[in-house]
Amino acid sequence: MNPLTYEKATSSTDALERHDGDAAKFLGAGTNLVDLMREGIATPTRLIDVTGLAQSIEEQSDGGLRIGAGVSNTAVAEDATVRAQYPALSRAILAGASAQIRNMATVGGNILQRTRCSYFYDVAGSRCNKRSPGEGCDAIGGFNRAHGILGVSDSCIATHPSDMAVALSLYDAVINVESDEGTRSIPINDFYVLPEDTPDIENQLNPGELIVSVDLPAPSANRRATYRKVRDRASYAFALVSVAGSLIIKDGLVVDAGISLGGVAPKPWRAIEAEAAIVGSPPTEETFRNAAQIALADATTQPGNVFKTELAQRVIVAVLQDLAGDAQ
Amino acid sequence: MTIEINNRPYDLPDDARISLLDFMRERLEFFGSKKGCNQGACGACTVLVDGERILSCLALAAQYDGRSVTTIEGVANGDELHPLQALFVEHEGMQCGYCTPGQIMSGIALKSELERGAPSNVSSDLTVAPRLSRDEIKERLSGNLCRCGAHNGIIDAVAAYVGGEEQ
């Protein structure tokens, strides 16, 4: 049995001082880490509880919103400003997990949750390059209905499971982190790194760095946004495909468009080229179909997830049509 | 390090590994909360912490120092059933009964979530309090699975609890 100690940090500075190397781990609500420890995937010997920290949601002088890393998913989804100004974020969180888990889970923990690839969790029975670098990937050639089609590699086709992060990607959120060396801010769209041949490295966070908050830029006037999630059952399941979308329409033309995809990639997948193809065009089905094709042009599928390319295109079109319809 | 469970204080375990669920069941013999999947997928271990529902299987007991937990053992008033317990009997919201404690704890929390105007995934307008409907109740109970398939009776019981008998 591995030794394990638990301590509760009183501040972010205190948490950073307590973090003394690879054997230490910051602990949020544990909704993923407890599972990872039980399965022998995460093997910390020192847990530093940061759930009591960074509990506020504060409007910023620039009109943006700062959400503490320790705020529960429920509190973010229910926040009046989030519901009114960042509805895709509220919807994305409400589409994820269950009320019980959302009550526990923190913003920081949600961002850092690991993939739900079943081969990743099957320590005894499956090869996984993310869990044991260089071992091989049994998802490729295996049961890969849930796996990724964009940004994947020959060594890993796992997806990032978060709904919340897809909406944060749409809103160009910035993740603020602290370490012994000071603070830095990382746009969420740069935060996650693609697997290539090192799928064990998932993001830019260095050992001992702590996420302390997430900043949402000031909301844009007349921007409509929403989140739609498609899954194997109506609720309480991870996404097969999800889309966070936004539009600003002025004088019959789209002046701003946002598309971020979940369930299809190792990170929230911002479809920048597809967005650019919409801007300046009328908000028609044809415009959106063209953009959806651009968004999925580089898809590489497995036999089990080949359906995701067309499904993602259809959900993109449906989301944008809904937003365009609402605007009229 | 103490935790309150059903209004009585208990010393928390020294072992950081023990979940709130295992602590309650194996050390304190509160057997009401069930260990279904032990990985956050079934909801059978649902309890209230300071009035909010959580999954006790994914909670490390050590993290709940100073908090107040309510389990199914704590909802009745002596021999008098909690109103939602009585409605589960009336609407036959169970078959084998294994998921029932979690369902009832979820139902109790669900009512207060609705009363504070919390939106859900099926709420059409995020800016107003959600309108009570069967779809709202189904969505809000989706974190509690029933392998007997007693969901219709469960939803009937919770609907009666949150909306009055006419629901």
Automatic annotation (TrEMBL), chain A:
<dbReference type="InterPro" id="IPR051312">
    <property type="entry name" value="Diverse_Substr_Oxidored"/>
</dbReference>
<dbReference type="Pfam" id="PF00941">
    <property type="entry name" value="FAD_binding_5"/>
</dbReference>
<dbReference type="GO" id="GO:0071949">
    <property type="term" value="F:FAD binding"/>
</dbReference>
<dbReference type="InterPro" id="IPR016166">
    <property type="entry name" value="FAD-bd_PCMH"/>
</dbReference>
<dbReference type="GO" id="GO:0016491">
    <property type="term" value="F:oxidoreductase activity"/>
</dbReference>
<dbReference type="InterPro" id="IPR016169">
    <property type="entry name" value="FAD-bd_PCMH_sub2"/>
</dbReference>
<dbReference type="InterPro" id="IPR005107">
    <property type="entry name" value="CO_DH_flav_C"/>
</dbReference>
<dbReference type="InterPro" id="IPR036318">
    <property type="entry name" value="FAD-bd_PCMH-like_sf"/>
</dbReference>
<dbReference type="InterPro" id="IPR036683">
    <property type="entry name" value="CO_DH_flav_C_dom_sf"/>
</dbReference>
<protein>
    <submittedName>
        <fullName>Oxidoreductase</fullName>
    </submittedName>
</protein>
<feature type="domain" description="FAD-binding PCMH-type">
    <location>
        <begin position="1"/>
        <end position="221"/>
    </location>
</feature>
<keyword id="KW-0274">FAD</keyword>
<keyword id="KW-0285">Flavoprotein</keyword>
<dbReference type="InterPro" id="IPR002346">
    <property type="entry name" value="Mopterin_DH_FAD-bd"/>
</dbReference>
<dbReference type="Pfam" id="PF03450">
    <property type="entry name" value="CO_deh_flav_C"/>
</dbReference>
<dbReference type="InterPro" id="IPR016167">
    <property type="entry name" value="FAD-bd_PCMH_sub1"/>
</dbReference>
Automatic annotation (TrEMBL), chain B:
<dbReference type="Pfam" id="PF00111">
    <property type="entry name" value="Fer2"/>
</dbReference>
<dbReference type="GO" id="GO:0046872">
    <property type="term" value="F:metal ion binding"/>
</dbReference>
<dbReference type="InterPro" id="IPR036010">
    <property type="entry name" value="2Fe-2S_ferredoxin-like_sf"/>
</dbReference>
<dbReference type="GO" id="GO:0016903">
    <property type="term" value="F:oxidoreductase activity, acting on the aldehyde or oxo group of donors"/>
</dbReference>
<keyword id="KW-0001">2Fe-2S</keyword>
<keyword id="KW-0560">Oxidoreductase</keyword>
<dbReference type="InterPro" id="IPR012675">
    <property type="entry name" value="Beta-grasp_dom_sf"/>
</dbReference>
<dbReference type="Pfam" id="PF01799">
    <property type="entry name" value="Fer2_2"/>
</dbReference>
<keyword id="KW-0408">Iron</keyword>
<dbReference type="InterPro" id="IPR052914">
    <property type="entry name" value="Aldehyde_Oxdr_Iron-Sulfur"/>
</dbReference>
<feature type="domain" description="2Fe-2S ferredoxin-type">
    <location>
        <begin position="1"/>
        <end position="75"/>
    </location>
</feature>
<dbReference type="InterPro" id="IPR002888">
    <property type="entry name" value="2Fe-2S-bd"/>
</dbReference>
<keyword id="KW-0479">Metal-binding</keyword>
<keyword id="KW-0411">Iron-sulfur</keyword>
<dbReference type="InterPro" id="IPR001041">
    <property type="entry name" value="2Fe-2S_ferredoxin-type"/>
</dbReference>
<dbReference type="InterPro" id="IPR006058">
    <property type="entry name" value="2Fe2S_fd_BS"/>
</dbReference>
<dbReference type="InterPro" id="IPR036884">
    <property type="entry name" value="2Fe-2S-bd_dom_sf"/>
</dbReference>
<protein>
    <submittedName>
        <fullName>(2Fe-2S)-binding protein</fullName>
    </submittedName>
</protein>
<dbReference type="GO" id="GO:0051537">
    <property type="term" value="F:2 iron, 2 sulfur cluster binding"/>
</dbReference>
